[in-house]
What we know:
The chain is an alpha/beta fold and 566 residues long. The protein contains 19 helices and 25 strands. Helix 13 (371-378) links the parallel strand 21 and strand 22. The protein starts with a helix and ends in a 7-residue tail after the last helix.
Amino acid sequence: MAFLFAAWVPAGDVSGEAKEVANVPILSGCELDYPPYCIVTPDGKAEGFSIELLRAALKAVGREVVFKNAAWSVIKQDLTEGRLKALPMVGRTPEREALFDFTFPYLTMHGAIVVREDNSGIRVPGDLKGRQVATVTGENAEEYLRRAKLGAVVVSLPSFEVALRELSAGKHDAVVVQKLVALQLIQKAGLKNLRIVGPPIRAFTQSFCFAARKGDSAMLALLNEGLSIVMADGTFRQLSTKWFSILNEGEAVHRRIMVGGDSNYPPYEFLDRNGQPAGLNVDLTLAIARHMGLMVDVKLGPWSSIRKKLESGEIDVVQGMFYSVERDREFDFTPPSLVAHHGIAVRKDSPELTDMKELAGKSILVMAGDIMEDLAVKQGYGKQLVAVSSQEEALRLLAEGRGDCALVAKIPALYWIRKNGWQNLKLCRQTILAAECCYAVTHGQDELLSRWAAGMAELKASGEYQEIQARWLSSYGSTDSRWRTIGQVALAGVLLLLVLLGGGFLWSRSLQRQVAIRTREIAFNNALLAAQTETSPDGILIVENDAIRSYNRRFIEMWGLPDQLV
């Protein structure tokens, strides 16, 4: 009920003591050096993404806020003991549940490991065993290191700036810190001998929230209401753009981005004779990188392996992932770069299969991790599937008589059938799935994703996208496009025939009417001639009668009528 009350009573309706409380600014805290979330400017002003977000949220519910600037350990203790009413950014962890009440999370980020450039022995959390790892007293990173029991020697320091400067100077082996914080502090301090290694630490996930003192339900309700408002009215997005886009853009521009794809999926992506990445998707990736000023490395491998590397963070972007609702729960996607038609391949002595329902009881070959495997499992065919490493392998087994059918993308299937001379295989005409091929990233990589989407838009606007697509696909055409063309030609022929038949029928009816009319005229003329001859034996009307006979003769010759009519 406290939440409903706080959300419903506007500042103008309070009175007495409540009105006096509403006019008192809420006291909060700002960490000294946690950019871009909490920053203290040289003139002592609290700034940063989380600071501005709390200001906006409280302003939305008619309240003001002032900040105490201090180290994290100080403001954390002040909130615990009630000297502060709220904090703008607290990572929600099991250790803190007993101390604070949290709003819903407004941001989820991951931790990272920072080492010196000359350190090649540390990449993932398991490598920290026996190493001296610096962090901040009472911070999420320290709690994670102690909770994870990695065997690291934890060194607690007053701030991450101090930790990173000491690491740069040769002290400690690593620093565990939230990734964006590390990037900005390294840039700010000019620590050129430090680098972030390995994938994001998934076990060190920070769900950032506003926090109130444990049991202060009225303040929690106020914070939740204000946060809900700024999320809905666009303020949150504006602040995100202001504080994160420049930082992320700088990161993306100054580091190499690893782009992954399938090594055996021609003509979209494959390794050429020299073992180098090639294909439509590869050319698109390189063109986007050129347009957006990015440095990229393209790494192709077995699809199931590439997908796992995206999940673990070893790869930043996958260049050819087919969209599905299920995959959308794990990854974020750009708008589609193309649409690929999928269907069923069978041996030529097998009947045509027109939909997934006809797969019941059949042995189904499919590429492991492919969108068609996902679809088949979703439709209840999981136990009938024979998952193999590639579409080529699925078609080879089918050609050898193993399996009843294969679920494939049609253009790659055509490629392999032609290349390997599998004359006993055919693609069923019906398209089972028209899948959108996109670039994909893990959740939280919004800026990187937007750069790829923007690059794709530039390619399409310049016409280069169409040139790349034509270069790789024009020599094939898809099975679907050929059948569509055949169907269109056949339909056009049928329509033309109908038009001709209909026109011929109408023209014939018209001619029949004209002939009947002219025949009646001839009969009348003949009767007239006979009457005139009988009544005018002196020949006065001979010239006129000859003209009538001439008219009759021309009409009879034109339409092939019997001569007896003359």
